[in-house]
Amino acid sequence: MIESITIVGGHGRSGAPEPVRQIELKMGNVVSIVGPTGSGKTTLINDIELLANGNTPTGRRILINGDIAPSAYRYDPAQNPIALITQHTNFLSDLPVYKFLETHARIRNKTAQGVDALIDQVLSFANQLTGEPIILTSRMTELSGGQTRALLIADATIICDTPIVLLDEVENAGIHRTRALQLLREHKKIFLFVTHDPRIVLLSDFRIIMREGSVAEVLTTNQDEKMLSVGVSALDDTLCQLRDKLRWGKRLRVEDLEVLA
Amino acid sequence: MNLAIVAGPATTGKTSVIRHMIPKLQQAGKKVAFLKIDVQYAEEDVELADEFQIPTRKVYSGELCPDHCNVMVLGDALEWAEEQGSDVLLVETAGLCLRCSPYVEEVLGIVVLEATSGMNLPLKVGPMLSLSDIAVVTKIDRVSQAEREVFRARIQDVAPSVLIREVNALYGIGIDPLVEAILESPEVKGQLYLRGNPPVGTCTICVGKKEVGWQSHFGVVRSLENQNFYRGQ
């Protein structure tokens, strides 16, 4: 059972030791990684995903339950405890959606309870996040960016069903974020969001602040911020509603912004 | 002498993988020699010699298939590497027509495939994959994790006993197990034998007959209706 992961600091781009030497993430934690573009956010989650052991350019080490991860985690996909959803929004895979999910469920040893039921579950999760629904007979390469990301999130949550999920800038995917956060919160896992989205940051337990390739600071979401998060969510919901209205070909009206007054 | 034969389609990252293996083998106290077999253009021998100060050779197979060329020159190459005082010979070969494989009995055979090459590639490369010991998957950072896992499943379907190792050849992550496999492989000695069966010989095309259509040929002929899945055995 995975209870915690520990990020042991390496060095920044200049070679200087990372200011924050150790971060422990416990099961159930929701954590954001923030920082300007190029500050090393994606590199940090890549280190986690590779279960770095001083062998990546940052020199970081990732411990599971305080120990070096067993090599089976890397070499047997069925045991890999980490699911990573990258910024790549295109599939190269030339398979139909059903075949892809079926193959993935098989290698993840998740076929016991019936493949079709599992695939239905993935599809219904994914289709709550997209505009146009995903169809099982579509080829993976035909899916839009949003559909792809929605499918990957659903796949990571239901087929991979890993204790640790890494999401890289999920807000850029053109998916229903509020719904995604709700659905994800129903599963007790360690979630790490690389994000620029205030709503996701304020809903996190704490945030890792990146600067020049290093973890510069770790900030716990304080009481003030937790109170602010209600207002930020309302603001974000309003923007989402405006976006949806435009998407569905409707006109915007002055009253649409009155909720904010 | 330890010998490893690294095969794989063009541009999959064979040389990048070897480039990360060499310093690790050197750290383990091994003297490495390198042979590149390609059809018509290669400069890896010059690059690797410069980078690691190791003896390197290249051979152009030209009108021969690279795998055929490998069978011809491997004995000489081992003698050459011995003369250079090397402990490990790494052979990189393009392989080509996918009918036979360049692997040799009792010698480590590594195939390098890229995760970006499509889900059907493992089914298309025949004995180059199915007769290898280790399948190295490169360019893993270019696809989603889900896709990587499905690619791995497709390899396992074709070659259930082949060990799969994912590497990031940009940073050299995942190279250690390959280096260990080379160090643990038996020393080469005596007569070497090609792994798997070579394709059936007496090819009428090879001897210069240019007419299209099986009716114009003799020996090994095949019609459109005659299909089989080829594993090299």
Which labels suit this protein?
heterodimer; A: alpha/beta; Rossmann fold; 8 helices; globular; B: 233 residues; alpha/beta; 2 domains; 7 helices; 31% helix; 17% strand
Describe the structure in your own words.
The complex is a heterodimer of chains A (261) and B (233). By secondary structure, chain A is α/β, with parallel strands linked by helices. Chain A has helices spanning 41-49, 72-75, 97-107, 115-127, 145-160, 177-185, 198-202, 223-247; strands at residues 4-8, 22-26, 30-34, 61-64, 67-68, 82-85, 164-168, 190-194, 206-211, 214-220. Chain A has two domains: 4-222, Rossmann fold, CATH 3.40.50.300; 223-260. Chain A contains eight helices and ten strands. In chain A, strands 6-7-8-3-9-10 form a six-stranded mixed sheet, sandwiched between helices. A four-stranded antiparallel sheet of chain A has the order 2-1-4-5, with no helix packed on it. In chain A, strand 4 and strand 5 (67-68) form a beta hairpin. In chain A, helix 3 crosses helix 4 and helix 4 (115-127) packs across helix 5 (145-160). Chain A is globular. Chain A starts with a strand and ends in a 14-residue tail after the last helix. Chain B is α/β, with parallel strands linked by helices. The radius of gyration of chain B is 18 Å and the shape is globular. The two termini of chain B are 28 Å apart. Chain B folds into two domains: 2-184, Rossmann fold, CATH 3.40.50.300; 201-232, no CATH class.
